[in-house]
Amino acid sequence: MTSDEIRRKYLEFFEKRGHKIIPPAPLVLANDPTTLFTSSGMQPLVPFLSGETHPSGFKRLADSQPSLRLEDIDEVGDNRHTTFFEMLGNWSLGDYFKKEQLSWFYEFLTTELGLDKNRLWVSVFSAESGSAVGGEGKTNVPSDTESLAIWKGLGIPENRICFYGVKKNWWSRSGEPKNMPEGEIGGPDSEVFYEFPEVKHDLKYGKTCHPNCDCGRFLEIGNSVFIQYQKQADGSLKELPQKNVDFGGGLERLAAASNNVPDIFQTDLFSPVINKLEKISAKNYSKDSLASRQMRIICDHLKACLMIANEGVFPSNKTQGYVLRRMLRRILMAAKKLGLNVTGFPFEEILFEIAVIYKDVFPELIDNAKDISLVFSGEAGRFEKSLNLGIKELEKAKTIDAKTAFYVFESFGLPYEVVEEIAKDKGVEISKKEFDSEMEKHQRLSKGGAERIFRGGLADQSYEVTKYHTATHLLHQALRQVLAKSVRQEGSNITAERLRFDFNWNEKLTPEQLKQVQDLVNSVIDRNLPVVCEVMDKDQALKSGALGFFREKYQDRVKVYTITDPSTSSGPPFSREICGGPHVGMTGELGRFKIIKQEAVAKGIRRIKAILEK
Ligand code: ATP
Ligand code: MG
User: Fold this and answer.
1) Exposed, middle or buried, 395 (CB in 10 Å: 0-12/13-18/19+)?
2) Is the domain of 425 the same as that of 475?
3) How much distance in Å is there from the Cα of 72 to the middle of ligand 2?
4) pLDDT at residue 552 above 80?
5) Contact of 52 with 91, CB cutoff 8 Å
6) Structural domains counted in the chain
7) Distance (Å) from CA 88 to ligand 1 centroid
């Protein structure tokens, strides 16, 4: 069965069972300063799982969500992990619960995909998991006996039902129950695995094999999370009146299972690319395990880079652009290991292959691939030059140690492994540990912590960032009042330390104008006005004067944040913008607003940097 068919069947299956098929969120959430990329189907839906009504009015939702997980980047190279993947998802917002969820997924797997039910294994949350694998300790939450009974009722024999504890089969935003703050919601989950008996267990993964073993014999194809508890002030967990289901299953892995291959890279979502790589490297994917690892990395990263670039991201030193740059460099290093000549960027055709694979989901890729390839090729050329400079620098150095390695990494992008190689030729050994600690030191020093962000896929999630987000709306409106109504946001970047705002304006702002803008923002802060969030139809929002951005693709229903003075609420609001949030509740929370810099960034575009003082 093709992957396109599986995606379609899944959505149809859940649509028939009363679900609204919702459009997936973009990978890069333009108005969310807290994360770099969407990494699961649940992520854009958190407000609705926390009790907000979904704009569609439905309590049953389903979609296929393109997801990017940088935290899995070191896993890429095995049979089942990629950074970019599609997560098929379905949700119940206080509607159906365990019985329907588990039965439907089982039905989908066995009747729609035709999986062999004798190869399905499941896991269930056990509070006493010490007796199961891992000895993870006890919690005060009861074991999930309901899911256990449902699986048995569906015919899964007891020897294929495994019990795991809080580390594996519990979900909340803060992790296991003891870490959950008061008010947080969470609950047990139940995973489904498909077994490939032909994959022999490798002892390097432990004495015995089990569904959560990493050897590759078991493929996790779906996870049903049951959000049923809320943490109380006394530390206990109380049953929620409204219980939710959050399900996610990887399309790539479902495709592997339904086609009976234990390797997602041998499904139609990857195989055209692997075939091309075999051709240009003259190496055999299934016979050469070193080559296959590099091919998997190149294949995944090229796809991820294409998807990121398709959303308008360019290689740079910041946030998403930095991720793109680092992934492109990893592609080039892997390509060199594979023996490819990377001068002239040999991957244009492969980018087209990927565009064709995804023609149903991202039809615009076919048109965009050429331009994106040019950008990648330019970036690759610059990296190649920088690498050569770095290598020259190293050759000049009298000694090579961890500090030198870090210096050439930071200044020329020379990866650690390359330095290690060159050092080896000179008969010196360098310590990876010391290199890592240099890196850590640097991360603490560097403002954006770009490397930390790269690893975690997370920007700063703090309350400070939320405050700057609200301050950005105030600044936007103040500029429109002081300068002209035609002022529009052209870009925005927020950290926990400052905001940066780009807008269309030709001249340098006079000191008086700057002061007026700053005073206006502070007067709104002083009046301590409420920041109100409403969900409405997109057209209604735009008609009501909410600011939106033409470049953004909005869903039919959108969130609108309004700041109005209640004592003068008959007039127009101070500020009204379509925005994903989050924002503070009252403007008084912001502190003192201070503009610290203005500059020109491009023709007709000015930039303001501002801070909030306590
Ligand atoms: P794993 O333990 O295999 O890394 P996970 O527990 O991190 O999976 P979830 O967060 O529960 O996975 O995500 C739901 C589903 O998404 C998984 O059951 C799997 O099918 C798929 N999935 C998760 N991570 C990846 C990945 N890096 N590449 C491909 N599919 C993935
Ligand atoms: Mg994982």
Assistant:
1) exposed
2) no
3) 7
4) no
5) no
6) 4
7) 11
